Amino acid sequence: MALAIRDVREHDLDAVLALNNAAGTGILVTDSARLRHLYDNAHYFRVAEMDGVIAGFLIALRPDANYTSPNFHWFQDHYESFVYIDRIVVAPEYRGHGLGRVFYCDVQSYAEVRVPLLTCEVFLEPRDDMVVLFHGTLGFQEVGQQKMGAKGPKVSLLAKELPSFPFVRERYLDGDGLPDVSWLAERHRPCEGAAQEVRA
């Protein structure tokens, strides 16, 4: 099977929404308006395409994103610079083949030339030990816990230090910036800064 990790396209959104809402208790259900808001505002929004079929996706944001998730706000309150993984979904038929690790390697390659931390959360209610173990093996450590609202589930807030960042900051970011090459380019966000706020 041919695998491609690529930036999301507008015509992918229906398939992404269906995957999101079929993912189970570990992923919050969303709607087309909220997904469109993420499409317009996310700094990283990539899909895995397997032989023409959307097999999964990962969405991540930086601190200046127009986004009102309580977990995203927690990281905004505690850290100046980071990439926050909002959600990752892999279709059931493609699980168990390492696609999650491929996504995390890809988002880390985006993050480590821009920020010192990669962040995310995992649900503790209900707790999924496989998800907790997965993040631990990738080097994430718990930096806090909170409940998502008065009646929401408890989450573990995770962060991973990116050891390449000091090298990049010293040699590039403190000077003229990253080289102007396609693999370092930012994702084009269709309505950058113009979309209405949508609550997660």
UniProtKB/TrEMBL annotation:
One Pfam family, short name: Acetyltransf_1
SUPFAM superfamilies given in the database record: Acyl-CoA N-acyltransferases (Nat) (SSF55729)
Full protein name: N-acetyltransferase domain-containing protein
Domain N-acetyltransferase: 3-163
GO MF annotations in UniProt: acyltransferase activity, transferring groups other than amino-acyl groups
PROSITE patterns according to UniProt: GNAT
Cross-referenced Gene3D superfamilies: 3.40.630.30
InterPro entries (UniProt xref): Acyl_CoA_acyltransferase, GNAT_dom, UCP028520
